[in-house]
Amino acid sequence: MLNIKKPALLLNRDICKRNIRAMAAKAKAQNVIFRPHFKTHQSAAIGNWFREAGVIAITVSSVSMAHYFASHGWKEITIAFPANHLEIDEINQLASKINLNLLIESEETATFFKDMLTKECGFFIKIDTGYHRTGIAASNVPLINKVLQASKSPKLRFEGFLTHSGNAYHAHDKQELIAIQQHASENLLRLKEHFHPQYPDIILSVGDTPSCSQLPIAPGINEIRPGNFVFFDVMQFALGSCRLEDIAVALVCPVAAMHPDRQEAIIYGGAVHLSKEQTLLPPDPKPIYGLAISWDGKNWDTANLLGKVSSLSQEHGILSLTQQGCNLKPGNLVAVLPVHSCLTGNLMRKYLTLDGEIIETMNT
Amino acid sequence: MLNIKKPALLLNRDICKRNIRAMAAKAKAQNVIFRPHFKTHQSAAIGNWFREAGVIAITVSSVSMAHYFASHGWKEITIAFPANHLEIDEINQLASKINLNLLIESEETATFFKDMLTKECGFFIKIDTGYHRTGIAASNVPLINKVLQASKSPKLRFEGFLTHSGNAYHAHDKQELIAIQQHASENLLRLKEHFHPQYPDIILSVGDTPSCSQLPIAPGINEIRPGNFVFFDVMQFALGSCRLEDIAVALVCPVAAMHPDRQEAIIYGGAVHLSKEQTLLPPDPKPIYGLAISWDGKNWDTANLLGKVSSLSQEHGILSLTQQGCNLKPGNLVAVLPVHSCLTGNLMRKYLTLDGEIIETMNT
């Protein structure tokens, strides 16, 4: 029995390792490089579980995160964020120790790093294949040519094209997800073909968990970089990427007050624990912030739904209770499956395994 | 000039101290107890600025936060969250050192603490005056009587009735805000009158920043507990509680990429820095996550709007740029006024003053 008194982020190690093994096996079976994104867990210890599954190359979202994982022995790191000019010193330090890949998407950035790098780095050109967050439009070959021109230097080694189909998170059904994946891979393949004469060995890298979980890897893709699948969460469940039983983390929270007249409970567990990320879970038309299920002191039980987190303030969560949930009392504990495990993990900064081990992160 | 390379939460000490002095002066002028909520800043150093303004009693939102501030010399603390049964040991430790007030809103909780407290505590009964998050409905005198009955013990000293008009955050205009405040204070005053024969000295405590900033304190109210006003933020600006020039914190972020074709920039500054709290800023019909203004290395300038944060992912923010903002380049810095300074402060865990001092918090 774990002695939990205030919100704690529990981690089921078996589920987590199963998720890692499944994605590693899929990449191996389809013969693509598996370069998982470590921004979800941010933990050296969990990183070691990936090593057990044969992973040697990783993705991170910041220079700080690259430094943390480099200090824990990772030698192949892509920073999947437009390279930050202001951290040139930290990037040079990293590049002197590991095989580092940057993301470049403008002439200015290419020129800056060509001039300022003291060690060789790889780089990907970030391609926008429909998400429209960042990257060069796949059709904009003139700009890609300019970036390649501006980056010509022994310090910058062109690795290939990289995209993140974040629009996969807005797919309404599997057909739409397939269409998004197909659109992205066709665009990347067209670029690869176009640049083949000058760059015959470049790789095509894709990233999102919904596509990587639900679909076969698209033909011609060389590398996948999913991250969230390590824990999954209610958003991925809503998207059809996982079952509730595949979610590896849950925030265990004390019940603080009951309001049976409106079938609500107040839990000690709010925006500073779960984050304010919300998702829709049809047919419910209202967004939710988590799903509360039972917790017996040793395990959570996805078959025993107690309520939906319908509202969050800084430390309070409101549960909209099921019939079962109405039996709760102040001082009981519930487990909340988070909507976005990356943000919940980042806020909680450490994990507690079901056998009571504390797993630290770069933020602990 | 501050040397900022990655997202940093800047604090303008002068604005912050001015906000503190103004609220302290208002409380003094209206002869009410000023018991500010420290969940916004969570910092012992900023707590000292309140001491300079004469504050001796404070409000916090968790037992952990009460321990932190007690260890920094605060002797009068109300934990404005339904008392957590599971932290009884930590509550007893606190009650042996300071004057601690708890919140009780059920017979079960009253009975539990009557039985389990080893030291005397004060308690408030949490009253719901229209927010419907938690608390006993002001009309439910029978339940209030039961709680008072169940708490009869030398260990539990009834201090009064406490409400948080969180519904003030949904007021569409000042008239509506006045109506919310009036409804809350009338309900509390009716209770005070009802219980006057048995409890002649109880106090009435109210809390929210919109009412405390915008309106005179309602007649008969004895204590105010606003928190957010110490920093203010874009949400309070949208509600009319402050000017942009009264916002004391800004997240300084590097520009990572420009997309002039769609008048957008990508900043290094995302949900793990700002939080995913959003607000409406009419007449714009779309919610925003922050306002980007210029930063010259020494100060931010609210008169120079560069863009709105229209979307956030884990580390990326998308700026929807003004004409002025379209001149930005990768490697520039912008200052983002946060939508909800409490959540941004909690995520960033420390502040950097304009003169380069690092101000720690309980989470640093």
Number of separate structural domains of chain A: 2
Count of distinct strands of chain A: 20
- Cα-to-Cα separation, first versus last residue of chain A: 24 Å
Largest interface, with Cβ-Cβ < 8 Å?
A-B, 52 and 52 residues
Low-confidence stretches of chain A at least 5 residues in length (pLDDT < 50)? none
CATH homologous superfamily descriptor of the largest domain in chain A: Alanine racemase
- The CATH topology of the largest domain in chain A turns out to be TIM Barrel
- Quaternary state of this entry equals homodimer
Coarse structural class of chain A: alpha/beta
Continuous helix count of chain A: 11
CATH structural architecture of the largest domain in chain A: Alpha-Beta Barrel
Shape of chain A: elongated
- Average pLDDT rating of chain A: 97
Beta-strand portion of chain A reads 25-35%
